User: Fold these one by one.
Assistant:
Number 1:
Amino acid sequence: MRVLRWVFQIAVVGAVVGLLLVLIGNVRSNSSELGIPTGYDYLDNPAGFPIADSDFNQRQPVRDAIRIGVINTLRVSLIGIVLATVLGTLIGLARLSQNWLLRNAARVYVEVIRNIPLLLIVIFAYAGIALVLFPRITEPWEPLGIAIISNRGVVVPWHDASGWGIVAVGAVAGVVAWLVARLRRRHADRTGTPARSGLWGGVAFAVVAAAGWLLVGADVTLPELAGRGTTGGIRMSPEFFAILFALVVYTASHIAEIVRGSIQAVPRGQAEAASALALSGFQRSWFVVLPQAFRIAVPPLGNQYLNLTKNSTLGSAVSYFELAQVTSISVANGAPAVPSYLLTLLIFLAISLVLSLVVNVVNRRLALVER
Amino acid sequence: MTEAVFADATQVTGSGEPIIVLEGVDKFFGDFQALKDINLRVGRREVVVVIGPSGSGKSTMIRCINRLEKHDAGRIVVDGTELSDDLRNIQEIRRETGMVFQQFNLFPHLTVLDNIALAPRQVRKLPKRVAEEAAMQLLERVQIPEQARKYPGQLSGGQQQRVAIARALAMTPKVMLFDEPTSALDPEMINEVLDVMKDLAREGMTMMVITHEMGFAREVADRVVFMADAQIVEVGTPQHFFEDPQEERTKLFLSQIL
Amino acid sequence: MGIPFAPSPPGRVTRWVRRNLFRTPFDGVVTVVGGALALYVVYRLVRFVLVTGRWDVVRDNLKLFMVGRYPTVHLPRVSVSVIVAALAAGLVAGIVHRRQLAAGTSTVAHLSPAARVLDLVQRFWPVLLGAVLVLALTTTPGPTLTAVGALIAAVLGRVVGARLPKRSHWVVVLAAVATPFVLVGYLADALGWDGWGGMMLNIFLAVVSIILCFPLGVFMALGRRSHLPLIRWLCTGLIEVVRGAPLFVLLLMANVALGFFVPREWAPSDVMRAITVFTIFTGAYVAEIVRGGLQSLPRGQEEAGRALGLSPARVTFLIVLPQALRNVIPAQVGQFISLFKDTVLVGAAMGLFEVLRVATAVTTQGEFQGQNLLPETFGFVALLFWVGSYTMSQESQRIEHKLGVGER
């Protein structure tokens, strides 16, 4: 019986390995027939295509293009994750509101957005909003005279990115805020007055950051029109806007459901016990319900973050140069298809693994202690 | 409610004015009436045990007293404060009443000590050190001081329920409500919880206890209230109640459980 | 979201309004501001649908939206397919109803026929709405006749299905599962694989991939729980690699790189490539869902089966798997909804003429060019997907309630 099992397993694995070998053989023979190389030497060849919104030069190697693609993927994913979490949490809480209007408005949002394809939102955000609703660059909106909104993108004032001064200011402000918050908590523990450590820390951060920023020079560049473009400030391209907008709007509808479900999954008895102890509505949520809901929400949230990162590849439908777009453009410009796509898959696999590792670690640290 | 039952229900044992008053309380869940014209008074330092078949409205009744359920008609007064929609009144009453649940409902993400100290710190605004010292004293009173730094999930059911009692006592309530505190426990753990409750009763705490532990009722109760079909059917001293029940419904119930 | 009412004292409406709209001053502000905003949005939406929308772009291209470039002379084939599919669905619904009656789990058994129709309308109002809107845009009688025929076929199937002898049930269900393949062959007979387009292509991709990915997913799930280490590692590796990959990249890859993996004369058609990718991709997710279902089953079930002397294979297929699959129906439906929505990716990734691509293409043709008609065309496509996905998700919630999953 045991022998049979091993024979069976080896046969299956053998078949799979054989299939792989045949496939690899096919790739080799097909490639050599077409005169396409199969190795990864192409990474050092000149890319042969430009990348919008970067100082990438088309004589630089493919390797650099891929690096920019990875950075762009991570950039839109990280910003998207933060914004989608904020929006999704608000909508999820709104779904539990006692206000009929708010509750149902949130419900309509979720039920509509969740049930239409993401790609539709992406393309619509690009061709239906960013390029059409925003005015032409020759007659842009300039709200308060500090930002320029046009179909060439949204430009807002930005700190002139020179030197590490601003980073240092941020770090100092962070430390001060942390110290103030800690002091407040200690004080609260001693006297029993409310800590409000978040508020105090936030104010401390704002004050120190503002002072430090003035100290290092307060260089801000305002966006200015320059011909059919702009200079100064920081610019968000219509492509970036479209994919970010769509990812946030779409993922928020899923996160809203997770938030709602997690809060509802906290047993009723918990809120009742808190009420019976005369905790107020806010205290009930803050000390009892939300910490437990957060725990429940972590694994599915991690899943949504992973989905969002993978969905950022839809940026290539609107020519946002994330990894998939870089890959398909470089293949169109002569990079061999099989190695290029395998590399892309590998990079995404690595991103997924890192993300799920983080989720697992967070999950384990939050796990309830049981006996 | 017959006049005789009404008299028994509203006549508190001993002297002094009642601390809990329910007058003509009705409660509906949709079309289902969970409480029908409930009249009951509980005196200071009195222990009232409520028994009855499941679904008879016992839980609903004591959950109305601290507004975990909202009653639809009638009056509920606790220590001179009438329960109304006013949030201040509700909080006032909740501060004066401790509650112990069948499923313990300890906060699983907080240590035993934090479970007990949470409400004194947040509601009574006690300094952390003071609240924690008081919590330790309570844990000694329920005889598990060594578990203070553990999480509820690490304790046995009996220990958890004792922590829950300590948590309710931490707000120094004038009244304690017990909603089937031993029903979710393994048999060997029931007594450790009942012992704590007996001590409380001996110290003069006003208590309303829903339980199926007839031994406890006989030993500790000043009065026993029997509920069925959303109504109070019979009220009497334990002796009277168990030896000489008046109502058919009561006799039937007692014959089923004894 | 029922609001528990006390038995009605006067002023029920006032009380409801106060409790649900003006509980606190802040609440009142939210209601007033939000209400104004909501009214404005609804007003704009209604105006767009009834007044300002240029729906002629949809009306003129309706055939392109629905069936792509399917030859007009062969359109009766589409009608026949829709009617046959409706009949099959009706038959299965009838059988399910019969079984629920027998098991006493039917929720409509006590209802009068009129109430049952009302129940159906409540459940499938999005489909009705979608059908009415699409039919309102048609200019020929064909689609309306098809819809009426499908309705009659569904009712007929439902009536007949409920009266079929119990022994024939498995034959009918098998036939219903086989129906899509027969219909696909019948439809493809007229124009081959790569001429497919429009919503028909999206539905076709979704249905075929759903049917194919299911057994694949179940076997991968069983493989991942196998006692044989090599099999377990193989399945785990495959599942995790596929789940870590973006579907869009897999489709891009299938488009330009799949051809390298097979001898060139075998190179599959675009539609076949898309189906391959969808099947493997969704199969990996289905595998994880099924594995969850298997894990959540109490160990006692397997032990009880063993104790009865059943072989391990029988325990798996007769006892464990049926329960596990039943418990994960809602999650499966969720995955299938994703798949249905993801079919639009084949347009951007592989250049197939699916409905979203139609929606983009028609805004650039002659008379409609440069007028920003994307809101109209995309709105129409969004409606089609919304109808399908929302109905599926509502039905899956019904099943979830019935299974008592997630209830405390």
Note: Strands of chain C lie at 353-354.
Number 2:
Amino acid sequence: MNRSVMTAEPIQEARAVPGLDFTAIHERYADFVWRTLQRLGVRPMDLEDSLQDVFVVVHRKLPSFDGSSQVTTWLFAICLRVAAAHRRRAHLRREQATDTLESSAPADPQANPERLAMRGEARARLDLVLDALALEKRAVLVMFEIEGLSAPVIASTIGVPVATVYSRLASARDDFTKALARFNKRQMRRSVDV
Amino acid sequence: MSDMRPWLEAGAESEIAELLRAGRPAEPLGDAARERSRRRLQTLEQPRRRAIRLEALPAAATVLLWVQHAALGAGLGVVVAVTAAAPRLIRRFSEPSAPANSVRAPQKAPGLAPPRNRESPPRARASEGSVSSAPLPSASVAAFPDPSTESDDFALEFRLLERAKSQLERDPEGALRTLRSHRADFANGKLALEREFLTVATLVRLERLVEARAYANSLRARAPGNLYDARLRKLLGDPTDVP
């Protein structure tokens, strides 16, 4: 994974701009919100609604946003709450992590179908294991391990010290390993039952 | 911990590595989704823009209200000032008619001439009392023009008779004195007939019926068929003319 390329993601100029209005925030940060919601596990089918939810909150809270923190930090906190609500609703609906971004991504025509199927299955498992993580940890893990963002960039994005990013990352790896073990155990129990 | 390397590089378990490799970076926001989001959010912005426009309204409304109240206050002030000044103005404009009335001035007893500003002359005070509850009809007196707008003589006459009327029930003797005073000052005054009628009524009240009838006959003789005829008959209890 080319980390230097990935750090060039549009998370730069995150400092609050005086007089920034709602339309400007939408224009500038809609993509950031969109990506953050995915990192926090919002399913593709719910992404547009969640994006709308985030900007409804932004619209309501913008007058009280004093610019003391970065806009991305503020938006990340809103995304966290919206994603948490989405996760609760998903659990209520007993949704399974079966709809991955595969649906929105163009399929590689030269890829081996069997390999594609295996990759799809692996992605579904990854989503299930990530769903077991706390949202903050999940976001750090996804940004660092999957998207290849550097710790300082992550720290700047979510508004925490770099050390916190590392400690969250270590904790997230731990939780991920345990969640994967639980998942495998469940799978084995099911296969034995069958 | 600052040298923390990605899990894949640090040698993750094969299964974990497989899962992480299957993961894909977050997809960027597509143009279509961005446009849809922009359109949906416009519905949020419209009420806010309207609200911003409406925020300016209270200030303008307050100024308008203030101007309106100021104008109303000024208008009321003008009305009050005009109302207060009206009697003085009317009196001033009615002064040119005074010489015509002053022809009768010699008839007045000396010393009875009221001052120009007669707000509280001794005679006038008596007229401030309530109208007598005497059985005499008051329509004729009440129908007189406002004494404040008439000449001084007429006002005096009017007040004297009003005083006599108010005395009629409780002090008929005093009423007679007042009527005599009127006769002395205004023998041929504008209200002479009213005075004669009140004299008859006072005499009736004093049960001096002979004198009352005499006065009544005198009044009828002086002004035959006058408006007091019916009232005199009623007062004296005469269904027909008194011989």
Note: Chain A touches chain B through 46 residues (CB under 8 Å).
